[in-house]
Amino acid sequence: MKTATFTAFLAIFLTINCSAQSDDGWFTTKAAAGINIKSEDYNPFIRATFYYNLENHFSVGTQTGVVLADNTFIPIEASLRIRPLGKKNIMPAVFVNGGYNADVSGNKNGSATFSTALGIETGFLRRINYVLDVGTEWFDKDCLLRVSAGIFF
Predict the structure, then answer these.
(1) Does residue 25 come out as left (phi exceeding 0), alpha (psi in the -120 to 50 range) or beta?
(2) Which residues of 96-135 are buried (b: 16+ CB within 10 A; e: fewer)?
(3) Interatomic CA distance for residues 52 and 20, integer angstroms
(4) What is the reported pLDDT for 7?
(5) CA distance 108 to 91
(6) φ/ψ of residue 11, rounded to 5
(7) For labelling alongside 146, which of 76, 113, 120, 128 has CA 20 to 30 A away?
């Protein structure tokens, strides 16, 4: 059931967010899917991040999505992306997010969340970049391994 729900959310999410990057390049959208891993348990998620690019090295934005754990959470977070080498074909990146996970299932209170990740972005296409990142996420008093893949457009 988790997999079917996750796939449906992902399809709707990508359909809604498929718009091209603005011509001036100042606004970027990241659509990502991944999992949070804790021992033998995993929680799939999909997230959208809407960045304002301050320059080629720094972007700030907001992030939301759906996390399917024991309960269903909607994260509302601030996000920072740092690309130390600027815009290249292959770019290392650092992602830092912090905010609140609202529990929409009504079974539990929400919780604060904080995550950091290191990633690689590829910029081979003019308007689409691919990203793979790995990091940690503090989620409801637990530290989880976070792995995600996505696109910037």
Answers:
(1) left
(2) ebbbebebeeeeeebbebebbbebebebeeeeebebbbeb
(3) 14
(4) 53
(5) 39
(6) -60, -45
(7) 128
Higher pLDDT, 6 or 80: 80
Count: domains in the chain: 1
Q: Which CATH number characterizes residue 109's domain?
A: 2.40.160.20
Residue-range definition of the domain harbouring residue 38? 2-152
Q: What gap in Å lies between CA 51 and CA 26, rounded to an integer?
A: 8
Report residue 66 CA to chain centroid gap.
10
Say how many CA atoms lie within 13 Å of 84 toward its Cβ.
6
Q: Is 66's pLDDT higher than 90?
A: yes
pLDDT digits (tens, 9 = 90+) for 89-106: 788 999 999 999 998 987
For the chain, what's the residue count? Answer: 153
Structure-model confidence comparison of residues 13 and 57, the more confident one: 57
Q: Report the alpha-carbon distance of residue 94 to residue 79 in Å, rounded.
A: 11
Judged against a pLDDT cut of 70, whether residue 11 lies above it is answered with no
Helix (H) or strand (E) holding 12: helix 2-16
